[in-house]
Design a protein that fits this description.
Layout (H helix, E strand, L loop, with lengths): L9 H9 L21 H4 L6 H7 L4 H4 L1 H5 L3 E6 L6 H7 L1 H10 L11 H11 E12 L9 H9 L3 E6 L13 E7 L5 E6 L9 H7 L2 E5 L13 H11 L3 E2 L4 E6 L6 H4 E7 L3 E6 L4 E6 L3 E4 L15 E4 L2 E3 L5 E3 L2 H7 L1 H9 L1 H5 L1 H4 L22 E5 L1 E2 L5 E3 L13 E6 L5 H8 L2 H9 L9 E2 L2 H4 L3 E2 L4 H23 L3 H25 L4 H11 L3
Length: about 550
């Protein structure tokens, strides 16, 4: 309204009054308020409560904007739709949540964020040559709930432009990775892609946007599966690395998530003293020290303790009331055996029986009440393996040669990998921790708001693997062994001088490993610069 008065003077404004006219126009036909996602027709027979109908405020687009839809829709739709997980909405609008699942393909997964529905609705409001511009989280590119929206956009080739803000937070009040998306009703053979690098302190987002390079990307790279959106040179390098090579999935027997106890406060204890036969530890659940037989306690490391090559010293143990049975299958130790052979552990479990039986609405009452909530990884956790945290800023794979190091599943835990017979575990470890493989896994993965990446099985299983052979394998293995030795010495180092010396030694060893991997994969100097730029952190 103030803009309408631009150039007017007190004298000209008074003239409006002389002719009985308003100095400012009415905007009541321009601004509308209502539920963008629900029309009155959708309400019939479903919502009879007047208060609920008032709260929902159904909106009829064609009646409210008749001139627009006489011309087949809007020229442009622009906005920042709400970011609300459906779990939150179920608390105060459960019937709306179910209605969206029926009305919108993007909500069909049943577990979604409401912004995906706004994208689908807004597309339907456009005329054929119209354009839709939303700033929304980039999370839907990768996560399972985004698959229906990815499929809709990919099938219609609706993507026209993406500006990826990466970890440059666009909103002070929302800690979320966003991207500016422009969609069209008409299909696009290609779309433009701009990526803003992390700015660091003092960086200006407008300045970075003005200087960022733009790539033209074929629409064919987008499908139902996770989207990998990167500048064209990065995508070309990823294709080159993958071509004709095995994957991490094909060189391993299994990539598995850590243990799921469903009662970590009972099973995971803080070590007070480790003896050969007895462990003294503090139970978070009981808030007291207890004694347990050492044979049923295994060192446990969490994601923050999983460092490249060698973990930090373990501070916790996990109570594992399981043992190999017939045919080598791991099963829950019988109550009779627990009572006779592990009386301290049995006493501790009895002290937590009520808590354990209440899990998952009483599902665990009865025989086996002291077992884990999930049976995943029970049979493989005690095997020699490679490990990775679930979340990390870069590749942080380590080796457990004895099989005694245990991990949990979930964001604070990680994944285990069992290399196939004939696959050199140390060579594979060196490959996975190289800057090239770290680039390959993070470029196609999910980046969190913290700047960390997900190393879940779905993001690492397709990592391109080419193991060295012959003399190259011997030399590469030696480099990894040197690195392991240096890392172990570094953990034991006491003086600052010794730590600094060993850190430099480890850095030099990693550079040698990186160079060997670049040679192995025939990566050019220009491509090496791409890797360095992509893996650099502010």
């Amino acid at each position: 309204l103030l803009k309408v008065l631009e150039g007017e003077t007190e004298q000209t404004i008074r003239q409006f009054g002389l002719f009985g006219e308003r100095a400012l126009p009415s905007l009541e036909r321009n601004i509308r308020c209502g539920n963008s996602l629900i029309e009155p027709a959708h309400m019939r027979g479903l919502f009879t409560d007047e208060e609920e109908r008032k709260r929902i405020n159904a909106f009829d687009w064609k009646k409210e904007f008749p001139k627009v839809f006489a011309e087949d829709g809007f020229d442009a739709v622009i906005g920042n739709p709400p970011y609300i997980r459906i779990q939150s909405m179920q608390e105060w609008a459960p019937r709306e949540v179910e209605l969206y699942k029926d009305l919108y393909r993007s909500a069909s997964s049943g577990n979604y964020d409401i912004y995906v529905v706004f994208v689908e609705r807004a597309l339907k409001l456009l005329k054929d040559e119209g354009r839709l511009g939303f700033i929304i989280p980039q999370k839907f590119w990768q996560v399972q709930f985004g698959e229906p929206l990815r499929a809709l956009l990919a099938e219609g080739r609706h993507v026209a432009h993406v500006t990826n803000l990466r970890n440059n937070q666009a909103f002070a009040s929302a800690f979320v990775n966003t991207a500016i998306h422009v969609f069209t009703r008409e299909p696009n053979a290609r779309f433009s892609y701009i990526e803003i690098p992390p700015l660091g302190k003092g960086g200006s987002l407008p300045a970075a946007l003005a200087t960022a390079s733009e790539s033209q990307v074929p629409a064919s790279v987008l499908g139902h599966g996770p989207w990998v959106l990167k500048p064209a040179p990065v995508l070309a390098l990823l294709r080159k690395l993958a071509k004709g090579r095995e994957t991490l999935e094909t060189v391993t027997d299994r990539i598995f998530q850590g243990l799921k106890t469903s009662a970590d406060d009972v099973y995971v204890l803080d070590v007070v003293h480790s003896g050969k036969s007895v462990i003294r530890a503090r139970s978070p659940q009981l808030d007291e020290e207890v004694q347990l037989e050492a044979d049923l306690c295994h060192p446990l490391i969490k994601g923050t303790e999983m460092r490249p090559y060698v973990p930090l010293p373990h501070l916790r143990v996990v109570l594992f009331p399981y043992a190999p049975g017939e045919g080598g299958r791991v099963g829950l130790i019988a109550e009779k055996r627990l009572k006779s052979e592990f009386p301290m552990t049995w006493k501790y479990l009895l002290a937590n029986r009520t808590t354990l039986e209440k899990r998952e609405g009483g599902k665990h009452r009865g025989p086996g009440w002291y077992g884990y909530g999930r049976s995943q990884a029970l049979d493989v956790m005690a095997l020699p393996k490679l490990l990775t945290p679930d979340l990390a800023p870069k590749s942080s794979f380590l080796i457990d040669e004895s099989g005694d190091t245990f991990i949990l599943g979930g964001a604070a835990g990680g994944y285990g990998l069992l290399p196939k017979d004939g696959i050199d575990s140390l060579c594979l470890l060196g490959l996975l921790n190289s800057s090239l493989l770290s680039f390959a896994m993070t470029a196609g993965g999910q980046q969190m708001e913290s700047g960390y990446y997900s190393f879940e099985a779905r993001f690492i299983r397709n990592a391109p693997i080419e193991l060295p052979a012959g003399k190259e394998a011997t030399r590469f293995r030696s480099l990894v062994e040197q690195m392991l030795g240096t890392k172990r010495q570094l953990l034991a180092a006491k003086s600052p001088h010794e730590k600094t010396r060993l850190e430099r030694q480890a850095e030099s060893a990693q550079e040698e490993i990186d160079e060997a991997v670049f040679d192995l994969y025939a990566v050019s100097p220009d491509e090496i610069e791409i890797v360095k730029a992509e893996t650099a952190r502010p």
